[in-house]
Structure formats: structure tokens, C-alpha cells
Write a structure and sequence with these properties.
- By secondary structure, this protein is α/β, with parallel strands linked by helices.
- Helix content is 50%, strand content 9%.
- The protein has two domains: 232 residues, P-loop containing nucleotide triphosphate hydrolases (Rossmann fold); 58 residues, Histone, subunit A (Orthogonal Bundle), CATH 1.10.20.
- α2 links the parallel β2 and β3.
- The radius of gyration is 20 Å and the shape is globular.
- The protein starts with 9 loop residues before the first strand and ends with a helix.
Length: 309
């Protein structure tokens, strides 16, 4: 990718699997470049979901200004397309003051929304969504996940497949057009009026999984169970169809015990991290760094300053 001369507008994109230290890395960069952070974590948008989404702490939020953290309610419909429009409007304003802005998150679709945009999707055939919803009710999310894996492995490997609405939407497009949902997102990239530098953070798989397990234990200690209990009246909302909440809803329904529910949160989070790694691993524009490196901040700054020099 070619970049303009120094002092042009540049978006620094920090990506990687959950629990890889993206927030801390982004804050260090924001402090160094005296700029702001835009979140691309699709679960941290919702103000009612804090502990289970590992939102930045009050101390972290005070260290650097964050946007799209607790910005919306779970009762609002907020798609990747909505995020694209709102984030680009924010970036237009930010770049009037800053030459560099930080975008950080692990949600592949929302990163894509800012960096590339989306294609137009086709109309779908009447009745297919109702049929898929009936299959969800009768056969469960696992059945639809397997259908999606067979029909569209690319989307399966990057989507939140525990979210039934996303699975159903992808299958609805496939069954209406006989083309994978992901194939409608592969045309020319929409040009952006800023440069983009992508940095990925990763670590040895066993170390990442241990960090995930520890994070879940910390969430429970900090009040995750009470947070999910408070959201029981809203459990059917799309925003809550996600890891860390579904498992505890089953616990409150007495379908499982608490210990099992917590272990399932760890297991499903590890699976989600694996899909994130697969998704971001396909992006050849990402420069990967070792997340646990003591020189991480210096390495990131060196990449950025060298690239835009």
C-alpha cells in the first residue's frame, strides 16, 4: 500500500484476537500521538454490557478519549452499516484536529466497515427468513451453524456464529441467490480520504488461551453474574446473543450449573478468538507483532513513523 507524504491523515488500526492487549496498546499510541481512539468492538458499543464485554476501565478511559464505548443502548438496532456511516462522520471531524487517529477492535466486519465499506446486498426471497427462524426454534443454533459452515466457510470463520441473527442473515442471502454471503463483500475497496496502517497483535496460542481463562475468572469476580441477571428482561434482544451472556442465561434457566456455564464461556471465547485469528490472518496489509513483547509500544511507533515518513 502506498502512503502520502508526512502530515497527511492516517488511521492506525489495531486488531487481533480477544484478550491480546489491544486496548492497552491503543492507549499507549494515543498518548504518544496525542490523539483519540475509536472502538471497533461490536459488543462494547452497548452501555448496559460492561463486565462481559471487557470494556476499558475508568482509568483507561481517562488515559485516552474513546468513542463508541457505551455509545448505544441494547434496545437500539445498530448494524455494521450504521457504524460505517457514524464512524466515518466522526473521523472527518477528528482529522480536522489530528493527523493520526487510532481505530482498535476485534470485530472484523466493523474494521472492514471503516477501512473498506460494504457492497450492496441483493433482495432476498420471501419466506426464507421465516423458514430459517423455524429451523432455529426446532433444531437449534448448532444446526444453522453447520449449514453456514458448509455454504459459506469464509463468513463462518469470521462472524459471531453464536449470534443467530447474523447466521440467519447470511443463510438468507445464500438461499436466495445461491451465492455465499461473503461473495457480496469482495468487490473493489471503497477509497477513503485517509491512509490506513494496520497492526495486528497476537501471541502463542497457549498463552492467549490462558489470558482468556483468567479474564473470564476476573469477570465473574467483578460481577458478571449480577450484570447478566440484570439483563434477563432483555435477553431476546440481538445484542445479548453473544458469548458470556448466553451461557449464563442457560444457568438462570437451570439448564446447567454455574461451574459449567463459566467453563463454557471460556471455551466459546477461545473458539471466538480462533475465528478472529483466522479472519485477520487473511489480511495481507496487517503487520503482526508479538503482543507480550516489552518493546511493543516502540515497535508500533517505529512501524507508523517509518511508513508515513
Amino acid at each position: 500500500m502506498n502512503y502520502d507524504p508526512p502530515n497527511t491523515k492516517t488511521l492506525i488500526v489495531i486488531v487481533g484476537p480477544t484478550a491480546s492487549g489491544k486496548t492497552a496498546a491503543a492507549i499507549e499510541l494515543a498518548k504518544h500521538f496525542k490523539t483519540v481512539i475509536v472502538s471497533a468492538d461490536s459488543r462494547q458499543f452497548y452501555r448496559e454490557m460492561s463486565i462481559g464485554t471487557a470494556k476499558p476501565t475508568d482509568k483507561e478511559l481517562a488515559a485516552a478519549r474513546h468513542y463508541f464505548v457505551g455509545s448505544h443502548s441494547i434496545t437500539e438496532q445498530f448494524s455494521a452499516g450504521d457504524y460505517e456511516k457514524q464512524s466515518l462522520a466522526l473521523l472527518t471531524n477528528f482529522f480536522k484536529k489530528h493527523n493520526i487517529v487510532i481505530l482498535v477492535g476485534g470485530s472484523g466486519l466493523f474494521i472492514k466497515a471503516v477501512c473498506e465499506g460494504f457492497d450492496e446486498f441483493p433482495d432476498t426471497k420471501a419466506g426464507i427468513r421465516d423458514k430459517l427462524n423455524k429451523e432455529l426454534d426446532e433444531k437449534g443454533i448448532g444446526y444453522l451453524q453447520e449449514k453456514l459452515k458448509s455454504a459459506d466457510p469464509d463468513y463462518y470463520n469470521q462472524a459471531d456464529i453464536n449470534n443467530p441473527q447474523r447466521v440467519i442473515r447470511a443463510l438468507e442471502v445464500f438461499e436466495s441467490t445461491s451465492r455465499p454471503f461473503s461473495s457480496f463483500r469482495k468487490s473493489a475497496v471503497n477509497e477513503r480520504p485517509f491512509n490506513i496502517i494496520k497492526i495486528g497483535l497476537n501471541m502463542e496460542r497457549k498463552d492467549l488461551y490462558q489470558r482468556i481463562n483468567t479474564r473470564v475468572d476476573d469477570m465473574v469476580r467483578y460481577g458478571l453474574i449480577e450484570e447478566v441477571r440484570s439483563l434477563l428482561p432483555f435477553r431476546l434482544l440481538n445484542a445479548l446473543n453473544t458469548v458470556g451472556y448466553n451461557e449464563l442465561f442457560d444457568y438462570f434457566d437451570e439448564k446447567t450449573d454455574l461451574e459449567t456455564a463459566i467453563e463454557l464461556i471460556k471455551q466459546n471465547t477461545r473458539r471466538f478468538a480462533k475465528r478472529q485469528i483466522t479472519w485477520f490472518g487473511k489480511d495481507k496489509d496487517i503487520t503482526w507483532l508479538k503482543a507480550a513483547s516489552p518493546t511493543l509500544t516502540y515497535d508500533m511507533i517505529d512501524i507508523i513513523t517509518t511508513t508515513i515518513a
